[in-house]
Write a sequence for this structure.
């Protein structure tokens, strides 16, 4: 059985204590992973602090070149990384609409390449007889990155690449359920980067807690659930760390009566069930105008009944399992609650026999706000469809939720859709699309969905402090 090592200061370290990583499609052990202790976190932080002294002084062009070399390494190992993602996470290699492990690895390459074109420019705030004031952006020091299990490699790239591009060094802790592709990526990146710039410690939430409170770390970038994010904010307070928190979502999609149902149904389906619904900004509550409600339900049901679930390593599989048993139990429970509330299951909802944490793609109608399936983040392959008649009321209902990650409006009338979008309380709104994150566009949540943004210039700048340089002339 392969044992994946920690990587600290450019060296692999295997530990006596290990944990198993399971394939959610088979429940078989894929590999074992080294379990880091607090002492390993100390070593990783010390290595990152040493590396920061020189890495922070390396010029931007060299760092950009290193990021491109990392992208080359990922491309050269594309198939291995995609297979690791499928085995540890469950998403098929290709998947429905091509949104599988291959898409994830391709996205990693694209993100690296785009980030390598970004820069931190000096801004001149004043230049006159009195003096000149320049605003400089400086790296923070050691960044702690803590990632979830749904898009393990993509999210690691989102954290690590802008951090090191801006001159920081990193200690990353992936989810203990999906650490393998991230460990392999860190190995590859260490073939390019100086020792200590990027370190990885693997283990459960306790390792994350040590990172969060560590006095040698200046910032935490965290993607995961809202309760864990709130705990991280508390744990980081004593050492006054900067935070970027990308937390849970319960994105509403509002469909107006003027849409072409046949045209939008496949798009709504793909964005609701991407990665079997285990995507932070997937469409999770679908509000449909009564005039087209039945027609859209019928179109979505037809698509759902034509897809194939299975082990994502096999050919022709559209959707994989839920990633872990605990998440499967949440999905089952929310389905049971909806059923008990009188909801109508258009398709799915039945138990599947094992092995694997499979749950059928499930569409639920005759359900509304106040039912847990609508109010809470399901993070799995079950979509509530809520009929509405009044637009003002539906906007209020979509906002009446603690989350505020994304939202969407579906209509042929773009001006009307924009007016509705402006009233939605969320960090991103898409018109006639959903969950379309782009490397040049800042992405982040409001309300309980998080703090700060990733991507774009604003996302890059979150890895820096500003320093105002005053040159007095008079
Ligand atoms: P999680 O919060 O359970 O775990 C995330 C990471 O935090 C893991 O690495 C875990 O080991 C670590 N962790 C657990 N307890 C910790 C603690 N006390 N201190 C520090 N670290 C700790 O989340 P998950 O179940 O892996 O991911 C699913 C959630 O992530 C969903 O709510 C989803 O919406 C959210 N998510 C959000 C985004 C976004 O961009 N907003 C993206 C992906 C996932």
């Amino acid at each position: 059985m392969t044992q994946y090592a920690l990587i600290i200061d450019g060296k692999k370290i295997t530990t006596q204590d290990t944990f198993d990583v399971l394939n959610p499609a088979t429940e078989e052990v894929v590999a074992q992973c080294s379990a880091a202790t607090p002492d390993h976190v100390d070593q990783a932080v010390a290595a990152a602090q040493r590396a920061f002294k020189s890495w922070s002084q390396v010029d931007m062009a060299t760092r950009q070149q290193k990021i491109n070399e990392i992208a080359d390494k990922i491309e050269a190992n594309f198939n291995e990384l995609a297979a690791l993602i499928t085995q540890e996470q469950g998403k098929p290699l290709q998947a429905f609409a091509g949104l599988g492990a291959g898409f994830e690895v391709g996205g990693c390459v694209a993100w690296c390449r785009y980030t390598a074109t970004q820069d931190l420019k000096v801004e001149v705030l004043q230049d006159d007889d009195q003096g000149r004031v320049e605003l400089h952006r400086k790296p923070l020091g050691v960044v702690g990155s803590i990632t979830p299990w749904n898009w393990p490699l993509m999210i690691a790239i989102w954290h690590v690449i802008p951090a090191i591009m801006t001159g920081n060094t990193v200690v990353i802790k992936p989810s203990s359920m999906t650490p393998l592709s991230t460990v392999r990526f860190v190995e590859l990146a260490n073939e390019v980067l100086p020792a200590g710039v990027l370190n990885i410690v693997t283990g459960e939430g306790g390792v994350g807690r040590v990172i969060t409170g560590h006095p040698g770390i200046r910032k935490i970038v965290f993607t995961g659930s809202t309760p864990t994010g709130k705990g991280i904010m508390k744990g980081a307070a004593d050492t006054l760390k900067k935070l970027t928190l990308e937390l849970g979502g319960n994105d509403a999609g509002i469909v107006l009566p003027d849409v072409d149902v046949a045209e939008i149904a496949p798009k709504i389906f793909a964005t609701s069930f991407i990665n079997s619904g285990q995507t932070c900004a997937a469409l999770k509550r679908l509000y449909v105008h009564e005039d087209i409600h039945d027609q859209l339900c019928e179109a979505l049901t037809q698509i759902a009944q034509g897809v194939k679930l299975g082990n994502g390593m096999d050919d022709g599989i559209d959707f994989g399992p839920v990633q872990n048993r605990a998440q499967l139990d949440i999905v089952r429970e929310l389905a049971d609650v909806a059923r008990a509330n009188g909801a109508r299951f258009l398709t799915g909802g039945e138990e599947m026999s094992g092995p694997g944490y499979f749950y059928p793609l499930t569409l639920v109608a005759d359900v509304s706000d106040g039912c847990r399936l609508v109010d809470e983040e399901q993070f799995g392959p079950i979509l509530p469809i809520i009929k509405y008649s009044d637009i003002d009321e539906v906007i209020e209902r979509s906002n009446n939720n603690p989350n505020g990650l994304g939202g969407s409006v579906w209509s042929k009338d773009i001006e009307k859709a924009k007016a509705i979008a402006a009233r939605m309380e969320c960090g991103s709104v898409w018109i006639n699309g959903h969950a379309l994150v782009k490397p040049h566009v800042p992405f982040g949540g409001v309300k309980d969905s998080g703090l700060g943004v990733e991507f774009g210039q604003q996302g890059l700048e979150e890895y820096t402090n500003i320093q105002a340089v005053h040159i007095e002339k008079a």
